[in-house]
Amino acid sequence: MPHYHRLVIYFDGASKNNPRGPAGCGWVLYEMDDHGTDYNKLASGQKYLGYNVSNNQAEYRGLDAALDYLDRESISCHGLYIRGDSEIVLKQLEGIYKVRSDNIIGYYNNVINSLDYVDKTFVKYTHIDRSRNSEADQNANDAIDEQRDCTW
């Protein structure tokens, strides 16, 4: 079982013609050095989600896919930094915003349940500008364009 000091997950979701068109999600996993200045890419992935998926649902699915990868690969860490460009998703996970939508609560619960398998010694959520989330965004859009799931 690989163990890391600190991991960083970047996640994103995309829904064309929100929420009617095709949707996808993407994520990227990095190991952070002890100084927090250097990142080593460990894995990334994308998932095609089909039609009638909202942007917020796709965002949650991106984070959930990354957490599923950690669980599937039995990866543990002492600190987990979760970064994305969806302020509402991150604030809901932090407990700042309540989840009021019946269309979102199941996705929220999936992520919360997935976090049960993570060593939560330190979990930090950070809202980042879209420009700093380009690789996860590209993975989400590639999933739609290619209509396929992929982890590499």
- The CATH architecture designation is 2-Layer Sandwich
**Which structural category fits the helices and strands?**
alpha/beta
Number of strands: 6
Instruction: Trace the largest sheet across and list its strands.
Output: 5-4-1-2-3-6
CATH topology: Nucleotidyltransferase, domain 5
What is the chain-wise order of helices and strands?
Answer: EEEHEHHEHE
Query: Which of globular, elongated, flat, extended, rod-shaped describes the shape?
Result: globular
Count the DSSP helices. 4
Going by CATH, what is the homologous superfamily?
Answer: Ribonuclease H-like superfamily/Ribonuclease H
In which range does the helix fraction lie? 25-40%
What's the overall average pLDDT, rounded?
Answer: 93
- How far is the N terminus from the C terminus? 18 Å
CATH class: Alpha Beta
Itemize the secondary structure elements and their pairings.
Layout: E1 3-15, E2 22-32, E3 39-51, H1 55-72, E4 76-84, H2 87-94, H3 102-115, E5 123-127, H4 134-146, E6 150-151
Parallel strand pairs: 1-4, 4-5
Antiparallel strand pairs: 1-2, 2-3, 3-6
Helix pairs in contact: 1-3
Keywords:
4 helices, 152 residues, 35% strand, Nucleotidyltransferase, domain 5, six-stranded mixed beta sheet, alpha/beta, 35% helix
Note down, in words, how this protein is organized:
By secondary structure, this protein is of the alpha/beta class. The chain has one domain: Nucleotidyltransferase, domain 5 (2-Layer Sandwich), CATH 3.30.420.10. It is 35% helix and 35% strand. It contains four helices and six strands. It has a six-stranded mixed beta sheet. Strand 1 (3-15) and strand 2 form a beta hairpin. Helix 1 (55-72) packs parallel to helix 3 (102-115). The longest helix is centred in the middle third of the chain and has 18 residues, at 55-72. It is globular. The two termini are 18 Å apart. The model has no long low-confidence stretch (mean pLDDT 93).
